[in-house]
Amino acid sequence: MIAHRLAVALVAGLLTGTLSAAPARIQSIRVAEYDSKTRVVLELDQARSHKLEVLDGQPRVVVDLYSASLAASLPERGTGIVRRIRHGRHPGDMLRVVFDLHASATATSFGIAAGKDGRGHRIVVDIFPGGVESEAAAEERAQPAVRDVLVAIDAGHGGKDPGAIGRGGSREKTVVLAIARRLARQIDKEPGMSSMLTRDGDYYIQLRRRYALAQERNADLFVSVHADAVRSLRVRGSSVYVLSEKGSSDEARRLARRENASDRVGGIEMDGLPPTIADMIIDLSQNASIGASLEVGDDVLQHLHGVGRVRKSKVQTAPFAVLKAHDVPSILVETAYISNPQEERLLNSSSYQEHLAQAMLAGIRAYFYRNPPRDTLIAQRVAAGELPEQQYVARRGDTLSGIAQRFRIPVAVLIRANNLPNDRLRVGQVLKIPAG
After folding, report:
1. What is the mean pLDDT of residues 219-238?
2. Pairing status of strand 193-197 against strand 149-155
3. Mean pLDDT across 119-134
4. For a tag on the chain, would you pick the N or C end, based on fewer CB atoms within 10 A?
5. What pLDDT, on the 0 to 100 scale, is given for residue 116?
6. Cβ neighbours, 10 Å, residue 140
């Protein structure tokens, strides 16, 4: 049996997603025969994305909908090429509607949002008999499939460059690779997202080559994972950095100098390259991605508050060479201080590594659901109203109105969703952010 994927609006990974909306109800199913096709219309009370498949061996069309139920009666008799309609439940709260056919066919599908005419949300499936597509069907098939958001994850250092070393002998290159791998696995489980690792072993990659790998794959985000060290054993906490030629503090500039020296440790001298006009153009285009970097960095930072101590409550800026991808939003996450004995132990803990990965994913997810790239599954889910539930950890200086503005929801909705007696917040308070 050969399965042809004709219109993908929902990937298999959606089985692991969490939606805040109640299940959609299919309220009616209509089937009509035309000269060149049989049209099936599913009418729903809520928008839902879907996945369409045509199976050749036993002629049938399959429509999968996540978080949906059937409230309509199925037609008792077939129409046109449709012999009968049936349905079933699948793991992960997936509703499958199956159209058994009289003969082989091709099919296309599309969604229609509810209109002012009172008609509900619809999924329209056109089935063309005999494997011959109409001009409209051919045009539909020619449309590019939705894609995943791609996140490039860069584990710092590696090979001859161990990075920072803790008092217990832990090496930065080892713990950050473990965290990067966990983050990659978390991202790959997320509906509409996939990952790439700049390194997946103990070897060194030149700093410029790291972000070049992300650029070559047209990544939507670059995340470099590190674990800082300082002389004082008492300093602890995580921080998030984005690119700046000056740096927001002496500490940020010191850290950037140490990380940028990695190219010399790895055997390749970074400094001394002659300036070119191309570099000027890159610097100009780089500025366009810094705003996005600051926004996603802030999302990641606020979720790190829920894991442990945060060293810097605001996103920091520093001249990190690894963040100089001019066309890819880029952040550097200092997960913890490996020079702090307590945090060194945590960095070697699989549960702590997992919590860090989950926090980074939560921040990345929040950013992309507010800023979904075009032609991605996340953009399609946002348009369909399928939004993941989010949380926000209140920080010093936060106000309820400011948080509501950040997530583009009314203050009253935020108060109601969290059963708040008033608009006062306490630092560390976890707020549920309802779908907008």
Report:
1. 92
2. parallel
3. 77
4. N
5. 52
6. 18
